[in-house]
Amino acid sequence: MRxxxxxxxxxxxxxxxxxxxxxxxxxxAKLLLGLALLxxxxxxxxxxxxxxxxxxxxxxxxxxxxxxxxxxxxxxPDGRSENKQLEYGRLGSSAFQALLLPDGSRGLExxxxxxxxxxxxxxxxxxxxxxxYEGDLPAALESIGATQVGLELAAPLAAAMTGDTNRFLxxxxxxxxxxxxxxxxxxxTEAGKTSxxxxxxxENGSCTAFFDPVxxxxxxxxxxxxxxxxQVRGTGSFVDTPTSELTVKLSFDPRGRQVVxxxxxxxxxxxxxxxxxxxxxxxxxxxxLVSLSDLRGSVVVLDFWATWCVPCWATLEEMxxxxxxxxxxxxxxVVFAVNTLEETQNFEQRKSAVRAFxxxxxxxxxxxxxxxxxxxxxxxxxxxxSTILIAPDGTLARYHSGVLPDMAGSLRRQxxxxxxxxx
Length: 423
Fold this sequence. Notes:
The chain has helices at about 5-15, 25-35, 50-60, 135-145, 155-160, 165-170, 245-250, 265-270, 310-330, 345-360, 375-380, 405-420; strands at about 65-75, 80-90, 95-100, 105-115, 115-120, 125-130, 180-190, 195-200, 205-210, 220-225, 230-240, 260, 280-285, 290, 300-305, 335-340, 365-370, 385-390, 395-400.
C-alpha cells in the first residue's frame, strides 16, 4: 500500500530560523524576551490573539527538551471517522516526529540527529530517505521533499526548533490548510478551566487553536477543511509525554535498507515501472467502459483521488491544467481523474456524489469511477493522491505520490519526455 504523510490523506488509506549555535548575546536577548512574556497571573482578557501566539512560540522556543503527542479524530464528509496519533520531540538540535499506526508502530518516522535527517515509511520496508542535516530542520525537510507528501511539523515542535511564528502557524494547518491568518480570540471558561481560543483562517478552511493561559502551550484544536457538503473536520489535543523516552525515539536503524534521496524516490522505489499497465475495464462517469488497451499510442495520465482526500483537491486542479495544455497543444495525451476508495460501491450513488463534488469546484475532467476499488488494486495500490503516467506502448512510465511542486508543469515536461522515447 502506498502512503502519503499528510494526516488527512492517511486516514482512510490503511496524512525559519535555523537552529545553529547562537552567540551568548543572542541567547541572553532570547531569555529576556521569554521573561517579558511569562504570565504573571490568571488569564488576561486583554491579550490579543497575536500576543497569545507569540507567547506560545516564545515558550516552546526556550525548551531544549520537548516531548509530546497529538491525539486527533478526523471526520470525513460521508460521516466516517478515524482516531490517529502523532508523536514528536526535541532534544537540543535533534528532533523526531512519527505518525503512528493502529498497532502503535510508526507509519512514518522522521529523525534529525547529528549530521543527517532520516525518514522511513511502513509500506517501504527496504528503503529509507537520508540527507544532510545541519540544525535547520525546515531546510532539511525541504531537501527531502516533505512538502510533496504533505509532511508538516507539529506546531510545538516547529516553534521549539525554529522560534518562528509563521512556521508555528503552518504546524497548526497540519499540511492541509493554506497560509493561516490570525482573526480573533475568545477567553472561555468551561468546568472551571479557562483557555484562550484563537481563530485562524485560510482560503480552504479554518482552525481554532486552544492555549493554556499560564504556560501558553497549545492544548487542542478544531480544524475544518473544504466547503459545506464536502468538509473534512478534525479535532484533537496536544499531550505532554515523558522526556525520558527521547533518546530511544531519536534512534534510527538503517541496517538492511537501501538509502534514497527524498520521499518521491522512496515511493517510486517499490512501484513496478516498466511493467505493462493493467487493462481492466473501468466505467466512466457517463457509464461507458474504458480499457487502457484502447488508448495505445497516447500518453495516459491517471490521477487517483477521493472526495474525502484533501490533498487530492489540489491535484485535480493541476490535472485540469494539464488536460487543457494537451488539448491546446494537440498532443496525444489522455487525462483521467480516477475516483476510488469511497465508502459507497453503488455506481449511481457514487456518480451523483462525484458529479456534485466536481461541479462545486468547476472541474471538468474526464472521470473514471473505480466502484469496487479493483482498478486501484490492479494499479498496485498507488495511494492518494497519486499520479501514474502510462507510455504509448501501454507500460507504466512514471509514478508520483502526493502533490508535486508546479505539478502541471512538471507532468507536462514528463509527458514530452515519454513522447520523445525517454524513460
